[in-house]
Amino acid sequence: MPAVSDEIFEKYLQKAISETNELGDEIARAGGGRVPVLGSGHPLADVMLLKHSPQPAEVQEGVAFYGRAGQAILKSLQRLRVDPMAVYGTNCLKFADGDEEEARPWLTRELHIVQPKLVVVMGEQALGFLNSLEFPLSESVAADLGTLQRFTPTVEALFVPDIDASLDEAPAKTQFWNAFKALGPWWAELPPY
């Protein structure tokens, strides 16, 4: 029976890759010359990392979580023994000067494509944006640091401080880590494929 489930997964993966590419093309066309910052990672990730807006290094490369935040997240995932290949990272806003109204349908589509089991929401602005989506069957996620919460019947949420605002001072790094480390036990409980 495993061969059948592998074939099914492969079909879903190909579909997700195609839909992610179509979404990226649509965002780029909507940019009107602006450089889009697209999500990156596994297109059917168990974990979706969500920041509010792209930083200059992300804009320069056109990829979410490029630069300092990405390196800090990678180190944190390794420390928690979470497979970085099972993670997808994106920003609410897809352009440096992005508009929330313009970006809501794109994030909604990303959530539908990736179908994560957990969304790690980074910071108050990302939390407000996620809660404004009116995603099907969703519940409002509270600003309760480090606590797993129900987002939809199939997706949990973990609220943590904004990674970009947490990189320069030790107390902010500690606050981020103390909230983010809840990902480790959650990951350890995931059933194997």
Describe this structure in words.
The structure is a single chain. This protein is an alpha/beta fold. The protein has one domain (2-188): Uracil-DNA Glycosylase, subunit E. The chain has 7 helices and 6 strands, in the order αββααβαβαββαα. The protein has helices at residues 2-30, 56-61, 68-79, 100-114, 124-131, 170-180, 183-188, and strands at residues 40-41, 47-51, 87-91, 118-122, 148-150, 156-160. A 6-stranded mixed sheet has the order 1-3-2-4-6-5, with helices on both faces. Helix 1 runs antiparallel to helix 4 (100-114). The protein is globular and about 40 Å long. It starts with a helix and ends in a 5-residue tail after the last helix. The model has no long low-confidence stretch (mean pLDDT 94).
> What form results from the Cα inertia axes?
globular
**What count of helical segments does DSSP give?**
7
Number-wise, the strands total: 6
Tell me about the biggest sheet? 6 strands, mixed
Helix content: 40-55%
Question: TL;DR of this structure?
Answer:
With 193 residues, the chain is α/β, with parallel strands linked by helices. It has seven helices and six strands, in the order αββααβαβαββαα.
Q: What keyword list fits this structure?
A:
alpha/beta, 7 helices, 6 strands, 6-stranded mixed beta sheet, single chain, Uracil-DNA Glycosylase, subunit E
Please render the helix and strand layout as text.
Blueprint: H1 2-30, E1 40-41, E2 47-51, H2 56-61, H3 68-79, E3 87-91, H4 100-114, E4 118-122, H5 124-131, E5 148-150, E6 156-160, H6 170-180, H7 183-188
Parallel strand pairs: 2-3, 2-4, 4-6
Antiparallel strand pairs: 1-3, 5-6
Helix pairs in contact: 1-4
